[in-house]
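Write out the 3D structure for:
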Amino acid sequence: MTATAPREEQLWSRCAGCASLLYRKRLRRNLDVCPECGEHARLGAPERLRQLVDPGSLRPLADRLPEADPIDFVDVVPYPHRLTAARASTGLVEAVVCATATIGGHPVAMAVMDFRFLGGSLGCAVGELITRTAERALDERIPLVLVTASGGARMQEGALSLMQMATVSQAIAALHEAGLLTVSVLTDPTYGGVAASFATNTDLVLAESGARMGFAGPRVIRQVTGRALPEGFQTADFLLRHGQVDMVVQRRSLRGRLVALLAATHAGAPTRPSVPRQEPASHRERLADDDAAAARPPATPAADGTAAVRDAWDTVRMARHPGRPTTLDYLDSVFDGFVELHGDRLGADCPAIVGGVARLAGRHVMVIGHQKGHTTAELVARNFGMASPAGHRKALRLMRLAARLGLPVVTLVDTPGADPGVSAEEHGQAAAIAENILALTVLPTPVLAVITGEGGSGGALALAVADRVLMLENAVYSVISPEGCAAILWPDRSAAPQAARALRLSAPDLRRLGVVDEVVPEPPAAAHDDPAETALRLRAALLANLLPLLDVPPAMLVRLRRQRFRRFGAARAGQRAGVR
């Protein structure tokens, strides 16, 4: 927004997006977002803090540092003169304001950059102030929230400004090791050394609507390549599509999103939501008492405690039924307050994997699952639940984040297998799956996996190396699809029903083999005929299996998890192979 005239500066502003003339007080009430076109005007650090933190909670950190002109830099104006002018025009000491505060009652340390001060450039003082803020977060064991707005490293300080990228990154690494949440909020613009360090190496990266982020700016790229840039290049939506941010947030929603994410850092003590979920009345009444749900024993469809016998091929078709509840369905019916996180941070966001923070009976968990869909359009858009390498890497990122925050991981497995495309192989699919499996074997937090539909080969195992593996009654879990097995061994794809029986891929078979720890009974017909009852049963099973894991020390969890999978080795092969 730009002022229309000196006399009117306090009363009117002209929108940089649509050129509308806006009453300044109205604009401020709308958080400096144009009510006509939605243009998000740039905010100074003090105003940003006012919008985000709880009133009366702000405690500024010391920002006085020794005057520095480390390389005696002079261009048309001596560097000290530029600093003096920036201080006079902004009222700030440097291009960042640092403080402790609370957001929604959650204590945080904050460093908010201000583009008005020499383009928010990263110099020695800015690096030092942000590093001290991170150290304060470590000392007080509170999350760190960074709000970035910068053109990059400060040229007037030469290589010393470049070194600040490493200095601040080391401070953030210490917070990661301590299990403390780090969040960056990208605002317009965030470029250069800031984008290539602490703006993107935090646990979570949020982009305010209208933000732009990249290493080189668009003008530089055009000059170097001589090519026109794609529509919306480096914008927040572009970043989301390419998996580089967790979410794009309108300014009016930013504080609420931060509150929801910060709440996950207080997961040690169970809390109940202050606002109940809007569920159908009958369903809400059945879930009124979480403790009762936790104590409720899983239903058994047969008197002897075994699942009803169903032909394996019929089970395969049941597991593939398009109406079968998906991960997103369960996130709505079994969990509360789901906040989805996006992106593998390398260049993509795989739609076949969804994940984020949610609550289960008041306890925060990280939920990650395959997502198929119900209609043909949804299935195609989600690649039929077949994850790309980016999907596996997104899942890995969220698992590691959960471990740092001390959150249990719940995975919901429903995939024919990994993406079979050429592109997936080009992007290292085998290595991506291998890294997930390796990481899960040592992840120092409880991991609970549920096979909800199809559990296809390595694509399923990448989310199923867990302390406890549950399986819905009509799900399947196999090293290969029946069709693939039939084509190779019979060889006749029409022999798929025979292959399904031979593979022992049903829940009762896998329970007897020890691959699955518990079978979750479905309603008499199937999950897709009564999704609400299925959700109740799954919720009870999750609580019954998760709660005991919360009391196991992390080192013991890892040791027991390794023992669990070691038992499937050669020493047990003969014994298990004969099980019927």
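The two ends are 73 Å apart (CA to CA).
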